[in-house]
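Lab meeting, item 3. Inverse folding demo.
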């Protein structure tokens, strides 16, 4: 599977899998950006990232986090 900025939910789930001990409340958008572009499956232009995209990833991760999935 490859990731692009449009796959916010898939990116969020992969980041959650790779960083299981991180408290969601402590995560910054900069960390999400850095972790996302570091994914070996990430195949999009890092320059296309913006706060809306990064926040969408955060929201997807947060919703799964609070629902305990």
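The presenter then showed the designed sequence:
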């Amino acid at each position: 599977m490859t990731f692009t900025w449009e796959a916010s939910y898939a990116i969020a789930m992969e980041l959650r899998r790779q960083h299981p001990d991180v408290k969601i409340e402590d995560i910054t958008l900069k960390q999400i950006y850095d972790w996302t572009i570091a994914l070996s499956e990430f195949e999009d232009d890092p320059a296309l990232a913006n706060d809306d995209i990064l926040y969408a990833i955060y929201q997807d991760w947060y919703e799964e986090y609070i629902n305990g999935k």
